[in-house]
Input
Amino acid sequence: MKDARDIILKPIISEESMSGLMMKKYTFKVAKNANKIEIAKAVEAVFPGTKVLKVNTMNVRGHERRQGIHSGYTPSWKKAIVTLTEDSKDIEFFNDMM
Output
């Protein structure tokens, strides 16, 4: 079994992800091979007192970057938007951002 901290890599702090906090939607960068069930269990393990309602995932393609005449791509990664239940405890890390 994978460790919960190997599944959830880091939170995503952006203007769009901060607008979802009122609806208890939190955005994370997750491992590319993690599925929705593993992500939900990892969030509940890392942040005690939370109950996950649903998980939406998406694969983000790498963008083309240029450095002079050389070009390449940034790495692709996976993003998860986790929705918590109404009676769930908030994730305190994101509350400090507001």
DSSP finds four helices and six strands in the chain. Residues 23 and 83 are 8 Å apart (CA to CA). The first strand starts at residue 8 and ends at 11.
